[in-house]
Design a protein that fits this description.
Number of helices: 11
Number of domains: 1
Helix content: 25-40%
Distance between the termini: 58 Å
Radius of gyration: 20 Å
Strand content: 15-25%
Order of helices and strands: EHEEHEHEEEHEHEEHEEHEEHEEHHHE
Shape: globular
CATH architecture: 3-Layer(aba) Sandwich
Strand order of the largest sheet: 3-2-1-4-5-9-13
Length: 370
């Protein structure tokens, strides 16, 4: 069986490629090697020699069409991620690229047997909360005026009482930003077109995936990359809001196992699956894990800054994926250790986030509460 992995030189894609090869599949990678994820533009050294590599843009019909020739299964990881308000870019690349993928399969009668789409927990926005008076709620984006007053918690839209976050299943989406909207649209294209044209399709809603190869050039790369680079430069950790935000973290190898599992399981067809962690951690709790592992005594910088549009808490209900036989197996401490071992072998570990943060402040994405 021959597998195409779009974005296969990227973070989750490359680890999925490794596992596919280990299990005996023939693999072709299609990747444009775009900055900031791939600032050097060349094929990363971790892409195995036995992989057939094709350089191309996901929106290039001709090149993508060639990459699809002779393919049985497609993992679609190619996507645009950032905090910047490039609204049309999210739509053109993420949604347009997904629509083009199915267009080529259908119009050229390609015998693709399955497509696995990389989606995101971001499609839930704030996810599900429980109000003691009004039960389950799916709240909207927190108003700017609330955040400016350092009122961080989610409030019931009916009675305005603070609510408790609960595990969010796959039944309802509520995207709050351009990236999340594009991921929702990708899912719609993939699942609707897949059903209509008998192309078994699966969408994977990842929580925060972490591990080696996670780019430290990309401001979107998340807490592990940002905190690690700051600590390596003995800089304060940027803690937004009050640091009590809850998040789950999953090892990239565990995510790769989930990807290959749904590829091999027919009962996963036309389904959406959460890929979450074993438990939720607060940002402050996570920061202290890093400080301990690195042996650092650096202040936690609670400046009152926040990123407008950020989710307060999000916890995934993984019961659907667990029923297929998957569980996260790698602890957060082990994830952090492995990432720190990897990042310290890399050249040019510059604090790229400082420049990105300044740009986000200028654009009103990062603000300071009064």
């Amino acid at each position: 069986m021959k597998v195409l992995v779009t974005g296969g030189a990227g973070f989750i894609g490359s680890h999925t490629v490794d596992l596919l090869l280990k299990k005996g599949y023939e693999v072709r990678v299609y990747d444009s090697l775009e900055p900031p994820v791939h600032p050097r533009r060349g094929k990363p050294a971790y892409v195995p020699d036995e992989v057939e590599f094709i350089s191309g843009d996901i929106c290039d019909s001709s090149k993508l069409g060639k990459a699809l020739q002779g393919i049985d299964v497609v993992f679609h990881f190619a996507a645009y991620q950032d905090y910047l308000p490039d609204f049309s870019k999210f739509a053109f690349i993420n949604d347009g690229g997904t629509a083009l993928l199915y267009e080529l399969i259908v119009n050229h009668h390609l015998p693709v047997q399955k497509v696995i789409l990389a989606s995101s927990q971001a499609v839930y926005g704030e996810g599900k909360y429980e109000c003691s008076n009004h039960g389950g709620q799916y709240p909207s984006l927190r108003p700017l005026a609330q955040l400016m007053n350092r009122d961080w918690e989610i409030r019931c839209p009916i009675c305005q009482q603070s609510m408790k976050p609960v595990a969010t299943d796959e039944s309802q989406t509520n995207p709050h930003n351009q990236y999340a909207v594009s991921k929702c649209a990708q899912e719609l294209y993939a699942l609707i077109l897949g059903k209509r044209y008998d192309i078994p399709t699966v969408a994977m809603r990842y929580t925060i995936i972490q591990g080696p190869r996670q780019s430290f050039f990309n401001a979107y790369s998340g807490i592990l990359r940002i905190f690690s680079v700051c600590l390596l430069h003995d800089l304060p950790l940027p803690i937004y809001e009050d640091g009590q935000q809850l998040r789950e973290y999953v090892y990239v190898g565990d995510a790769a196992r989930a990807n290959v599992l749904v590829m091999e399981k027919e009962e996963a067809n036309y389904q959406v699956f959460n890929v979450g962690g074993s438990r939720a951690f607060s940002v402050l709790e996570y920061a202290r894990i890093l400080l301990d592992l690195m042996g650092k005594d650096i202040e936690l910088n609670l400046s009152g800054e926040f990123r407008f549009g950020d989710t307060r808490h999000i916890i995934s209900d993984m019961s659907k994926l667990q029923k297929l036989g998957w569980e996260p197996t790698t602890s957060v401490k082990q994830i952090v250790r492995e990432y720190l071992d990897w990042i310290q072998t890399q050249p040019e570990i510059s604090n790229h986030y400082a420049q990105a943060a300044e740009k986000m402040k200028q654009m009103g994405i990062i603000r300071k509460a009064t």
